[in-house]
Amino acid sequence: MSMAISWHYNRPVLAKNITQQLTSGLFNRLAYLGQRRIGKTMFLLKDLTPSLVKANCLPVYISMWSNKNAPQKEIINKLQRSLEQLGKKNALQSLLSAEVTKLKALGVTAEFGKLDPVVATDDELTIIGNLIRQLVTAAKNKRVILLIDEVQHLITAKEFSPLQYMLRTIFDELNETIGVLYTGSSRRGIEAMFNNKDMPFYNSANQVAFPHLRDDYVRHIHSMLKQHFNLSYDINEMIEYFNSINQSAFWFDRLAQYLALNQVGLKEACRSINEMMALESQYDSTVDALTKLQQGVLVRIADNQSRYDEDAIALYRKLGVKKPSRSQIQSAYKSLESKRLITKVSNTIFFEESGIARFIKEKYDL
């Protein structure tokens, strides 16, 4: 039986760097911040975990979105399974493969749906603490690394507060005997968790921006389309489109699938993906809720251009805004932050929604 061809773009250098960080003794807890759908989870499962295993670590992947109403149950489940499989040949690979399969089956549905949060019982909190201690002991000379994905979910409901406090307590107790890597798809959420002194996880992890995929990833997809479907497209146009959707691996993978299935021109495929993005993200309602000045400022930020120069003023005029003052432009920027459309981390401005600036450009033919 032939194996399915993997289209995954490996990132061995990044995996090696993070592995070194988690095993150096200098960092016990790291929080990697990144927007949605830039390939974080697949990187954790397909690149980082094998690297950690080679470094004599025991990685345990736990997604807070796997049981959004009761994440404590998912934590218990993953810790129990890891303990049960400890020492068994190929057991870890089987667990990780199951996670990849589940992730692909869930698709986008994991991100949405009504939340009906359930508070963790005292017994559940005690069980989690005991399981983590047991796992560290049973791992012997292996360093346990917990990979906690979509960690920002824990601040979406007050019912999750006891779980947060318990996790902070057990991690502080075990200190350097355990490593923890948090990842999240909301920079605002991650910042709220780790930078707010009133939150349980305050100042408990070093925060790092998760690196986006770059041109080499696009070249990889371009090569795969040529090799397996005999489809050839302008690589520069593909790179340009990838950048226009803020390097979203999720949507660019959808583009590759659309091209392979329909074998149409690149521009037609891009239009279809744009429509899918707009439909799912409801860009119309989001953009309509913004003032014209806010829309213009958003476009300038996306283009990495000044918000105050003559070209910016010309753009605002095209949108119907008379020459705004500097304070009005600053106010528009702050509004975009408060609406959680952009986030500034270490002097870099990130978008929480891929493609919204492109949607504005197309709407007004900018």
Brief summary:
The chain is of the alpha/beta class. The chain has 16 helices and seven strands. Helix 6 links the parallel strand 3 and strand 4.
Summing up helix and strand content along with how strands pair, one would put the structural category as alpha/beta
Strand content: 5-15%
What's the count of strands?
Answer: 7
Radius of gyration from CA coordinates: 22 Å
What does this structure look like?
This protein has 16 helices and seven strands. It is globular and about 65 Å long. By secondary structure, the chain is of the alpha/beta class. Helix content is 55%, strand content 10%. The longest helix has 17 residues, at 122-138.
Please tag this protein with its features.
alpha/beta; single chain; 5-stranded parallel sheet; 366 residues
Secondary structure layout:
Elements: H1 12-23, E1 29-33, H2 40-54, E2 57-63, H3 71-85, H4 91-106, H5 122-138, E3 143-149, H6 161-174, E4 178-184, H7 187-195, E5 206-209, H8 215-229, H9 235-244, H10 249-262, H11 266-281, H12 283-288, H13 292-302, H14 310-318, H15 326-338, E6 342-345, E7 348-351, H16 356-364
Parallel strand pairs: 1-4, 1-5, 2-3, 3-4
Antiparallel strand pairs: 6-7
